[in-house]
Amino acid sequence: MHGLINRAFQAFVSTTFGGGSWQVIMDTAELGFNEFEAMLTYTDEQSQTMLHTAEQILQRPLAEMLEDMGTFLVSNPQLEALRRLLRFGGVNYVEFLHSLDDLPDRARLAVADLNLPGLELIEQAPGQFELHCQPGLPGYANVLMGVLRAMADDYGDLVFLDHSGTQDNAEVISITLVETEFAEGRAFDLGAHSL
């Protein structure tokens, strides 16, 4: 697994549960190191050992933590660059959803060796969508649930999300757009401002 993904989980745990909790996880996992390097690649076994150890130490279901990590990636002010990358997908939430098909390619533009599984958005009816997440990265759909929820908040829209199981080997997320402009969205400018 790409180190950037492991490093994102490390940042989520350290910020949410404290650096001490992260240290306990890594000591218990016995991987031989305490931090993940963002630009290295780790074996699936190393990544899975870390994730399952975190689940045991923090006593929270892994799927729930991964969804929370997805929310963290969008809402944490220190990760504004990722939020900006996602917001370039559209001026509203529906346009953003339609841009998700291109997310793996956009991720590769930013990090050449980061291979995210394919995504396919299917519009079932106005305001009702299914996002099909291709296999290849365990927990990917859970992280996307958090990202989708946080982006809806970012746009100020009210949505219902449901992990609907699998279809043709892809995990399916059902998305129902209940109300646009439900709340005031976060400000977003195309031009980045430097201090």
The amount of helix comes to 40-55%
Mean pLDDT: 90
The CATH architecture of the largest domain comes to Alpha-Beta Complex
Q: What is the number of domains? A: 2
Percent strand equals 15-25%
Could you spell the SSE succession in H and E letters?
HHHHHHHEEHEE
What does this entry look like structurally?
- The chain is α+β, with helices and mostly antiparallel strands.
- The protein has 2 domains: 3-60; 70-179, H-NOX domain.
- 48% of the residues lie in helices and 17% in strands.
- It has helices at residues 3-17, 19-29, 44-58, 62-75, 80-87, 93-99, 103-110, 140-155; strands at residues 119-125, 128-133, 158-167, 170-179.
- Strands 1-2-4-3 form a 4-stranded antiparallel β-sheet, with helices on one face.
- Strand 3 and strand 4 (170-179) form a beta hairpin.
- Helix 1 crosses helix 2 (19-29), helix 1 packs across helix 4 (62-75) and helix 2 crosses helix 3.
- The model has no long low-confidence stretch (mean pLDDT 90).
